[in-house]
Amino acid sequence: MSGLLSDEEIETALPSEWEHDNDEIVRIYDFDAYLPGVEFVSTVGEIAEDAFHHPEIILRYAEVEVRLTTHDAGGITKNDTDLAARFDEAY
Fold first, then answer.
1. Is residue 1 in a domain?
2. Which of 25, 46, 56, 82 is most buried, judged by most C-beta within 10 A?
3. How many domains does the chain have?
4. Residues 3-53 pLDDT 10s
5. How far is residue 34's CA from residue 74's CA, in Å, rounded to a whole number?
């Protein structure tokens, strides 16, 4: 398990478009329609399963909200910021 990141470390490691929200990082991905969002959720799920690090994913009509935290550590770790970057690459 990775150690918790300080607020300064989070801000440095946080990919653009992501926000720091208490003990989570969050991003909303926008889509033109529902099905592209569904496909993205599937891709995110595969990436997360490969990393054995599972985000909260909220699917709406034209957007997907992703929230990451490391529950075992009680907050944000390098695993979260690394996975956020992988999701951005997939987007």
1. no
2. 25
3. 1
4. 999 999 999 999 999 999 999 999 999 999 999 999 999 999 999 999 999
5. 33
